[in-house]
Design brief:
The complex is a heterodimer of chains A (506) and B (364). Chain A contains 17 helices and 24 strands. Chain A is α/β, with parallel strands linked by helices. Chain B has 364 residues and is mainly alpha-helical. In chain B, strand 1 and strand 2 form a beta hairpin. In chain B, helix 4 packs across helix 11 and helix 5 packs antiparallel against helix 6. A two-stranded antiparallel ribbon of chain B has the order 1-2. The chains are: A alpha/beta (506), B mainly alpha (364).
Chain lengths: 506, 364
């Protein structure tokens, strides 16, 4: 079978880093080809080269057998290469059709021919089974639907080769299944798909071939049907990987965190969390699952003090902390690994050592009478870097902005765990991280549970919730619609509750 | 570290480009840029290379010009480190000046103590003036740029009203002369520099630079201000009092600017003055802070640079070079600083064109 894309011997160096080192990627026409690698393995660089965002230092690219030089994204579009980005680029108060035709508006005279555009959108949508309503506004449709709009945008522009960048990160299990179906349908109609991901299960489920990169080098391309997940993971990390967190039986102790009839308003002033009651005991992990935007953020913010509450009580070891400030809560024993590590978790322009003391800079040994003790701050950083294996170029004085996402997250985890809070609120601890870092962070969180800390884990990744939690609470529409034991449930049951189709409150 | 190197290289390039542009304008109008550089050299060193004469008065005036803009530079820089844009240094300076006149004229005290009281009052007044936009920002989220700009006008007319109605200026232009006990004037310094206006004002200025450095870089207070400046949400998450930081930062910014008002009024001059318009110390401060990268030592150096540009103007004019060239240079330096990313990009391009050096293996 003919290769539709051949990237041969591609090398690309950035100052100090060889992002791609003689990488070859050959993609068969009409296949789903996965590109697998840890963060920083060179996947994005390779795709950016294909999409015309970077020029390779050496190597050649052939599209449909012809040598091409892709110097900017317009040339890539002209060659029929389209990209569905991880972060959608949609105008929220425009309709689906308006978003799709943006920049390519069909006209009749001076005005946009909306009818013709909508008709074409509907045709494409039906051809590939996308089921998108061309007249819906983006702000009214789900994230999964928005992603389909992005796909439609590519198809409307006659893309033949579609690059999907981590497409499932924001989807529910059901939506992921549907997306897999759509991808297969696209391939059946003759499209070619390049799937960038680090989720092995999705590759196993959807892809035909898988190319693995590690530290900028090509490790190999394998037919997915003949390769196990374990083998692919080992190719990716270069060592054996444990998928399932080794976790002893749960030994729950006293209730450390208790939430009673909690109501919280969201940014729009509506009740984002409604009448939530839950408790977390010492030595257990309570997982909170739900589709993004169903009250998780409000719950986290209320417990940690980032926003005030409407009504209800939040009890830490029996004491109501709902009226206290963030600092007081921190000092009483609440730790928080925030869902947005760039917005809340880190001061990106601070050095690593300064970031390690954001809660404790005003206390000995890090300062005395208001004067910082940089010797102790530095020593603290070196200790945490070593203990938590945070990889950073220059030790404590590394600018956090320059560190990889995985190591930034490790730094936050190190800081929060090192403070040894009795209640740890952990939100999306492994979003966007690679297998190695995920494994490590999971291990550290479990270790805290085993030490008798109460852990509230909020995650959009169902696998993570199922793997880590002892009990699971499901949020839907701001309410808890189910609390189940992790050992007695499965993805299907949770998925149904997450979609609001079932309830199970024990 | 690459970061600190670019913090030095970019301003240096911007300054060179600014001078180059000024020289180009001169060339284009048929005048010699050499004359301009001689004038600048003379304003800094006192030495006239053409006539081979030396007059230390120029050095004194150069320092006098640098002092207030260093302080307003610190004012703008301090607010900026907390993520606030203090356009109001001008107003804070004028309010400081009013307070200095009041304490100078109305309070009687022994020599050194009287001056200290004057400086203290000016700092206090500037701080209060800075607290207003800080409070409005923290409490009602009113943008500090709008408030400080408007307060500049309030301060200007307050000053002019006070000169006439409170301090009973006879000629409606200036107050009576402030008693010597309240002045920073020094006959020794003046004599040393051939009768320039040089005064003890440089002592509080240098102290302010030290205090700025210590507060920002070494204290927990500075740490929390910088955290708020870089990432408000991150600071909030860490339990810092973001709103309190905003108010205190604006107060301290106002203190620096208020001090500048005293240094001008009881140092450069010896009386309060009614002003037809703002004198531009606040805006010079923005330029000084910008070029100095909001760092203490940077503000010191760029304060000297802009002080030189101001001090050189009369000399340039006496050589037949329009003094506006100095303003053109000052403006274009600021412009080139604002093009930081462009300069960094060009530097990268130039570096890339060199033959590629062996790239180290990536180790992690």
């Amino acid at each position: 079978m003919a290769y539709v894309i051949e990237m041969l011997d591609i090398s690309k160096a950035f100052p100090g880093v060889r992002a791609n080192d003689r990488v070859t990627l050959q993609v068969e026409q009409g296949s789903i080809h996965a590109l697998l690698g840890e963060n920083g393995a060179g996947k994005s660089t390779l795709m950016s080269i294909l999409f015309g965002l970077y020029l390779p230092d050496s190597g050649s690219i052939k599209v449909r057998g012809k040598d091409v030089r892709i110097t900017n994204p317009n040339i890539a579009n002209g060659l029929g290469i389209g990209m569905v980005h991880q972060h959608f680029t949609l105008v929220h108060n425009f309709t689906v059709t308006e978003n799709i035709i943006l920049g390519l508006e069909p006209r009749s005279g001076l005005v946009i021919d909306r009818k013709r555009a909508a008709k074409r959108v509907r045709e494409i949508s039906e051809l590939y089974g996308l089921k998108v309503d061309p007249d819906a506004k983006i702000e009214d449709i789900s994230v999964g639907m928005q992603q389909r709009v992005e796909i439609l945008k590519m198809l409307y522009r006659d893309a033949e080769i579609l690059i999907f960048d981590e497409p499932t990160a924001v989807l529910t299990p059901q939506e992921i299944r549907e997306l897999m179906g759509i991808m297969r349908r696209l391939v059946k109609e003759g499209k070619t798909i390049l799937l960038i991901t680090h989720k092995l299960r999705e590759i196993k489920e959807a892809a035909d071939f898988c190319t693995v990169l590690r530290r900028g080098r090509l490790i190999g391309t394998v037919p997915v049907a003949e390769t196990s997940e374990q083998q692919m993971a080992e190719m990716m990390v270069g060592r054996e990987v444990n998928f399932h967190v080794g976790k002893g039986p749960v030994k729950p102790g006293a209730v450390l965190l208790q939430v009673e009839h909690l109501n919280v308003r969201n940014a729009k002033g509506l009740l984002g969390a409604k009448d939530i009651s839950l408790e977390v005991r010492a030595g257990e992990i309570l997982g909170i699952c739900g589709i993004d935007g169903n009250g998780q953020t409000e719950l986290i913010r209320a417990i940690t003090g980032l926003t005030g509450i409407e009504s209800g009580r939040i009890l830490l070891k029996g004491e109501d902390i709902a009226g206290l400030g963030i600092k007081e809560r921190t000092e009483l024993g609440i730790g928080h690994i925030p869902e947005d590590r760039h917005k809340h978790g880190l001061i990106l322009d601070f050095r690593l050592d300064e970031n390690f003391v954001v809660h404790s800079y005003d206390r000995e040994p890090f300062s005395k009478m208001g004067v910082l003790n940089f010797g102790n701050i530095r020593a603290n950083a070196e200790r945490l870097i070593k203990e938590f294996d945070v990889r950073c170029g220059q030790g404590g004085v590394t600018s956090v902005r320059s560190m990889s996402g995985g190591n930034q997250q490790k730094a936050i985890v190190a800081r929060e765990i090192d403070r040894s809070p009795e209640v740890l609120v952990v939100a999306q601890p492994t979003r966007g991280l690679d297998v190695g870092a995920i494994e490590y962070i999971h291990k550290r969180i479990i270790a805290e549970r085993d030490k008798g800390k109460a852990i509230l884990l909020i995650s959009l990744e169902l696998d993570e919730i199922l793997d880590m939690s002892d009990r699971i609470a499901v949020l839907y529409g701001g309410e808890i619609v189910g609390v189940v034991n992790a050992a007695e449930t499965d993805e299907n049951e949770l998925g149904l509750m997450m979609a609001g189709a079932a309830r199970k409150v024990s | 570290m690459a970061k600190s190197r670019s913090a030095l290289v970019v301003p240096s390039i911007a300054i060179l480009l600014g001078f180059a542009l000024g020289a180009a304008v001169l060339l284009a109008t048929g005048r010699s840029p050499i004359d301009m550089f001689y004038a600048m050299l003379q304003s800094v060193s006192g030495k006239n290379l053409r006539a081979d004469t030396f007059n230390p008065r120029y050095i004194g005036e150069f320092i006098v010009q640098s002092m207030p803009i260093m302080l307003t530079g610190l004012s703008v820089g301090f607010a900026f480190r907390t993520g606030l844009f203090n356009i109001g240094a001008e107003g804070q300076l004028m309010v400081g000046s009013i307070a200095a006149v009041a304490v100078g004229l109305w309070v009687q005290a022994p020599p050194v103590i009287h001056v200290l009281l004057v400086l203290l009052a000016a700092m206090l007044a500037g701080g209060l003036w800075g607290a207003i936009p800080g409070f409005l920002k923290a409490r009602f989220n009113v943008h500090e740029v709008v408030v400080t700009i408007m307060l500049n006008y309030v301060a200007l007319y307050l000053n002019n009203w006070a000169i006439v109605s409170i301090f009973k200026s006879v000629d409606r232009i200036k107050t009576e002369v402030i008693p010597a006990t309240a002045l920073l004037k020094s006959s020794a310094l003046a004599a040393l520099t051939n009768g320039s206006r040089l005064n003890w004002g440089f002592v509080p200025v240098l102290l302010s630079i030290l205090v700025y450095w210590f507060l920002i870089e070494k204290t927990t207070f500075g740490y929390s201000l910088r955290a708020v400046g870089f990432n408000k949400d991150g600071a909030l998450y860490a339990g810092m009092k973001v709103n309190r930081s905003i108010v205190s930062s604006m107060i301290i910014a106002g203190v620096f600017a208020g001090l500048a008002g005293a240094v001008i009024t009881v140092g450069t001059f010896s009386f309060g003055r009614a002003l037809p318009a703002a004198e531009g110390y606040g805006f010079d401060g923005i330029a000084v802070a910008l070029v100095g990268g909001n760092a203490a030592i940077g503000v010191f150096l760029s304060g000297l640079l802009f002080g030189m540009l101001k001090a050189a103007q009369p000399l340039m004019q006496s050589q037949g070079i329009p003094k506006d060239i100095a303003s053109i240079i000052q403006a274009s330096i600021v412009l080139f600083i604002a093009m930081k990313y462009g300069i960094e990009y060009l530097m990268k391009k130039i570096r890339m064109r060199k033959p590629p050096v062996a790239v180290e293996e990536v180790e992690s």
